[in-house]
């Protein structure tokens, strides 16, 4: 039956890598679990390994993992004679804004300001800046039309 020789914590090379080595004859099939659920391989998370005799060595690779990828990773090796598994904890990034729920992703006026006075002040500032920008554009347009005419002494086309 297969036997897991090594399973190492994630290390950053070009990508994050959970290195493993599995021994088995016949060669076992390998798959991964993340927090007990089957891990689907994608472009972001994929396994690369090579077979050298009865030993399979490789990495579970992560391309720029986030806090969503934190958790327990289990390698499962199976062949006709049995199966073996081993789990390791993978920690890549801290959760942003620890202790808070994910409401910070929803941008509502109530979230942006704690009270209505502050919100109305922010709105009045935004409206004032927009009005100033409009007036500036109108003045520039008038100045360009009045003083931006062609010179009498310019080259004729």
UniProtKB/TrEMBL annotation:
Example GO molecular function: transmembrane receptor protein tyrosine kinase activity
Transmembrane residue ranges: 119-144
Q: Which Pfam families match?
A: I-set
GO terms for biological process, alphabetical = cell surface receptor protein tyrosine kinase signaling pathway
List keywords of the entry alphabetically.
Answer: Membrane, Transmembrane, Transmembrane helix
What GO CC annotations are associated with the protein? Answer: plasma membrane
Coiled coil regions in record:
none
Q: Which residues form the Immunoglobulin I-set domain?
A: 21-88
Look up keyword Glycosyltransferase and say if it applies: no
InterPro entries hit by this protein: Ig-like_dom_sf, Ig-like_fold, Ig_I-set, NTRK3
Q: Which domain of life is it from?
A: Eukaryota
Name used for this protein in its record: NTRK3 factor
Organism source for this protein? Circaetus pectoralis (black-chested snake-eagle)
Gene assigned in the entry: Ntrk3_1
